[in-house]
Amino acid sequence: MHSINLNSYSLPLVCDIGYIQDKYGIYRHPDRKMEKIHVFIFVIEGSIHVFEDDTEYRINAGSYLFLRKNISHWGGELYMPGTKWYYIHFYDSPQNEVKEDEEYKYYPRSSMIYEDTYSTKISLPKQGTVYNSDYIITKLKNIVSLYENPHPLRPLQLSLLTYQFFIELYSSHLEEQQESKKHYIVNQMIKLLRTSESNKLTGEEIASTLGMNYAYLCTLFKKETGRSVKRYQNELLIEKAIEMFKKNAGNVSEVSNALGFSNPFYFSRVFKGITGVPPTTYINENYRYQ
């Protein structure tokens, strides 16, 4: 299975997009190898039979498939009579080939958006079925309409709309995965850490509340979120600290003490490790309100 990855900070660049129908079922998917172009197909009615590097796919109404660049793909059976579909051909962003970065983590985070959030990749689902076909068709119609518009900013607008569309498919795919047991456990841990009245739960408290081995919980949490439990708890504490600074609810020493840090120096080190700047710099550079 050849997946298509995008950097979380760059856009897929649209080459071509359109709507096609085969009323009589006399054609089949073309035999080709597109060196620089990825392909997205969404079937409205009928069925498309296609192979990619000897892997067989059948795309039925309400389903989609991504085909990777520089991999041979070809049609199998003729299109089913009356088959209708949309397609998007797109390039990777120039000089932004996806590296072996960490996958974007689909879990609740603190309200702060940290820089490393963007040093991730998005693995688009190879294929899937949507449960809101009318909505998807409307989105694709809008993208096609923009493609047919000669506006000078059309390429940039097309890439932005396409990225938003792919993100919606990606989000739906991840939401389906959240039903698994391991995702349930991690979400329970996050809920516990975020709602606890204690500034920082101990490993024993976490294990006792969830009734599971703490070492296992730590390993699972790190694998699924990309964060250690300690790091995540520190992020939540720094989020509280930032809210206190915005409200002028104390200086560095007072906030450090209120949040249970051993001393202001350790608090400042943790704050800089999370935000990239010391708390004094953050206070001077950001708005505050009463």
TrEMBL record:
**Know the name of this protein?**
Helix-turn-helix domain-containing protein
Q: Which domain of life is it from?
A: Bacteria
Segments forming domain HTH araC/xylS-type: 187-285
For this UniProt record, the keywords arranged alphabetically read as follows: DNA-binding, Transcription, Transcription regulation
Organism expressing this protein natively: Metabacillus herbersteinensis
The answer to whether UniProt assigns keyword Transport to this entry is no
State the PROSITE patterns in the record.
HTH_ARAC_FAMILY_2 (PS01124)
The record's annotation in Pfam families points to:
HTH_18 (PF12833)
